[in-house]
Write a structure and sequence with these properties.
By secondary structure, this protein is α/β, with parallel strands linked by helices. Helix content is about 35%, strand content about 20%. The relative contact order is 0.13.
Length: about 270
């Protein structure tokens, strides 16, 4: 198996991938993103180097020094401002080269993938390595959506796809056919928290999360996990609906157990 370079952000997915590499006996090396990956998140002894978000050149050097052949990007990353990015010379040249073309998460990730592959690495998606992480079509857990929830899901999918087309966000919250909130740069947890004050009497509302139509599946696939379930329950929403085969399920067993306890449904839906 080719040696895997893991660009690791926040959350449980980088840990899951490292554990999988150990089980498969696949050689790997992790580049942790400072401010994203927690310092002690990975098991002791994990082959690991650190870079800041703008440290593209150092990341390439670490991968080459450790004979990495394939690269995967996994884990949450809060996109900084240009000043907060503090790019090294390699990253600065990339931003200078592409200019306005690098605006927007989707465009920036495609450019990043292109630059990584120009350095001689092959970029692969986490779903190619751990396909079982993708949510499949159907209900997870004991609860199922009501007729109103199903109608809200249908409405939410339509709106979320339109959001994705213009590279704005991947999630919306719909209650009784009304779009309460859409995801921007703040992320899904902040979206859910913001919707709490906007909910109306009656049906509880649903979080809908889908991939962008132009999504490069090698980076930034939408993700849900136990934190999503907890936030949805605290906001008083009925459940979570996500695009089947296009959204990652972090710590699925824990999330499903929590959903059952808190009265939240989780469903994978087909999106055409």
């Amino acid at each position: 198996m080719k040696k895997l370079g893991i660009i690791a952000g926040a959350g449980a997915l980088p840990i899951c991938l490292v554990q999988a590499c150990e089980q498969m006996k696949r050689p790997y090396f992790v580049v942790g993103l400072k401010g994203c990956l927690e310092k002690d998140a990975l098991p002791k002894g994990t082959p690991l180097g650190w870079i800041r978000l703008g440290g593209l050149g150092k990341g390439f050097k670490l991968f080459k020094k450790n004979n990495v052949e394939e690269v995967v990007m996994i884990g949450a990353v809060r996109r900084p401002s240009f000043v907060g990015l503090w790019p090294d010379w390699k990253c600065f040249k990339m931003l200078l080269k592409y200019g306005k073309k690098a605006l927007g998460d989707d465009a920036l990730l495609k450019i990043l993938i292109k630059e990584i592959e120009k350095e001689g690495f092959k970029v692969v998606g986490i779903d190619q390595i751990l396909p079982h992480l993708l949510i499949k079509k159907g209900v997870y857990g004991r609860l199922i959506p009501t007729a109103q929830d199903t109608a809200d899901i249908k409405r939410g999918v339509q709106v979320a796809r339109k959001l994705g087309e213009v590279d704005v966000g991947q999630a919306v919250i719909v209650q009784q056919g009304l779009v309460l909130a859409v995801e921007g740069i703040e992320g899904t947890d902040a979206l859910i928290h913001r919707s709490k004050a906007l909910r109306r009497k009656g049906g509880r509302g649903v979080l809908i999360k889908v991939a962008k139509p132009q999504q490069d599946r090698r980076a930034d696939l939408p993700t849900i996990g136990p934190n999503t379930v907890q936030s949805v329950a605290e906001a008083g929403l009925a459940g979570i609906a996500v695009q089947a085969d296009s959204v990652l399920f972090s710590e699925a067993e824990k999330a499903i157990k929590l959903a059952n306890q808190l009265g939240v449904f989780i469903i994978g839906v087909e999106v055409k």
